[in-house]
Write a structure and sequence with these properties.
heterodimer, A: about 160 residues, alpha+beta, 2 domains, five-stranded antiparallel β-sheet, about 25% helix, elongated, B: about 300 residues, mainly alpha, about 70% helix, about 0% strand, globular
Chain lengths: ~160, ~300
């Protein structure tokens, strides 16, 4: 061995013991799995089950805008309907609602009316359903954290009528 | 051989060992069976039937289910649960394990896909799905009493560990990429705790509020989460750290449930299953117990 040379481990290409080879199809499967995991992971896009694993990756602060449902009763009183009050199929409705600004009137009506049925079942006195943006802010007052809400109506619908 | 060439050989060696290194047959059978059982529990116990009532306007199918324009009927969903559950049971009992595992895995993929077909990208089932994918071709003609670690037994476990490590790393990488290091030491964790989850509610509202009100607790949590995620690839190359990283992941997911009520228990179970050599740990425990009575039986020396 000359200067500048170091002892190296054996090359991994050394064939394994007889009967202990990795099957070719296993190597192909592993290559596919790793490519499908690495490409969206590095770039950061979602084509479920391919995903960028962007879990809670955006920092939160005191301001948050969310899409909410406001149930209006016969007296005109508005009350926020938690999606937790609705059946399981409706719990993620915030995501379809968040896409409504780019959607046409028919799509807005479809989503509103789809939600209205479940809201009327949960709140039988509902005369109108309003899809709204909630511009919320966390505020600390005397050591206590409270949330201030500012609702911005976006679309509404009533039982038996087209959406507005 | 030059220093650079030596490093290349060493890197190739490390990578080869990371993906194709040897493990015992007992460990392979244990992990394969446990993953099948876990998939079976997720299939059978998951609240999928209620998804059938989702109005078509609220259905946004995930790409692999893009052919659906609405949720399948209750009958179809229950059929998937029954077939998947029975297949998982067959895999656990080692009856046609490769076919049974594949059927259970596909049923689980479809059911988890249905759950995620409501607009929000859901990750709750993805670690188990991805980490168990190599086991679709895991060897099944295995003599579980063969004490010699072999590459043909080891590769599904090794690849599962690499997949798990990459998943945690990517979670940390995107936090850094989108928010920077202040994700960890800024006010972010305070607001995560105070705002609560987008869906559902905190498992323990008191602890969430307490974390939000104590900024140093919130910051320590953030540093722990980001540090753990970014450091996870260490488990690929330094096996003695795996127990600690597994414990860290379990702690992370249990505390996430208390803080945000998020269902990541499939992650919390999958990670220790893969990272810890349970048959070897059990053998060591038995050995220690066997030694103890012998040591106790020895007469005490005068002192």
């Amino acid at each position: 061995m000359t200067a500048g040379e170091v002892e190296a481990p054996a090359d991994p290409a050394t064939p394994p013991a007889e009967g202990d080879e990795i099957p070719r199809r296993a190597r192909v499967l592993v290559a596919i799995v790793l490519v499908l995991l690495l490409v969206p992971g590095v770039i950061g896009f979602d084509l479920w089950p391919l995903t960028g694993w962007r879990l809670f990756s955006l920092s939160r602060d005191a301001d948050q805008t969310r899409w909410v449902l406001l149930a209006v009763d016969a007296e005109g009183e508005r009350d926020v309907v938690s999606l937790e009050e609705l059946p399981l199929g409706y719990r993620h409705a915030e995501w379809p609602m968040s896409e409504l600004p780019g959607a046409g009137r028919a799509r807005r009506d479809d989503v509103c009316r789809a939600l209205l049925g479940a809201v009327v079942e949960a709140r039988p006195g509902t005369t109108e359903l309003v899809i709204a943006r909630d511009h919320a802010r966390l505020v600390e007052v005397d050591g206590e954290w409270t949330t201030r809400h500012d609702y911005e109506p976006f679309h509404s619908c009533e039982p038996g009528e087209e959406g507005r | 051989m030059s220093r650079a060439q030596s490093w290349v050989v060493r890197a190739r060696h490390a990578l080869d060992d990371a993906l194709w290194g040897p493990e015992t047959a007992a460990r392979l059978v244990f992990v394969h069976t446990a993953l099948a059982a876990l998939i079976g529990v997720r299939i059978v116990a998951g609240s999928y039937r209620q998804l059938a009532d989702t109005p078509p306007a609220l259905v946004d199918p995930v790409p692999i289910l893009g052919f659906l324009d609405r949720m399948p009927s209750v009958e179809v969903i229950v059929a998937l649960q029954v077939v998947g559950g029975l297949a998982a049971l067959a895999a656990v009992l080692r009856r046609h394990p490769r076919l049974a595992f594949a059927v259970a895995w596909v049923c689980y993929l479809v059911l988890a896909g249905l759950r995620g077909s409501r607009g929000k990208v859901l990750h709750n089932d993805l670690l188990l799905l991805w980490a168990s994918a190599p086991f679709l071709l895991a060897p099944v003609d295995v003599d579980r009493h063969d004490p010699v670690p072999r590459r043909r037994y080891g590769w599904p476990i090794r690849v599962g560990i690499v997949v798990t490590a990459l998943i945690y790393f990517f979670a940390g990488y995107h936090k850094l990429r989108r928010s920077g290091p202040s994700w960890a030491y800024g006010d972010n964790m305070r607001y995560i705790a105070l705002w609560g989850p987008a869906i559902g509610s905190s498992g323990w509202a008191g602890i969430a509020r307490w974390t939000g009100e104590h900024i140093w607790v919130a910051r320590a949590s953030g540093v722990f989460i980001l540090g753990l995620e970014l450091a996870y690839p260490v488990v690929i190359f330094v096996p003695r750290t795996r127990l600690w990283f597994a414990a860290g992941a379990v702690f992370l997911h249990v505390s996430t449930w208390f803080l945000l009520g998020l269902d990541y228990w499939a992650w919390a179970v999958t990670v220790p299953l893969l990272l810890v050599d349970w048959p070897a740990a059990l053998a060591r425990l038995r050995e220690r117990r066997a030694r103890r009575p012998a040591a106790e039986a020895r007469p005490a020396t005068a002192g």
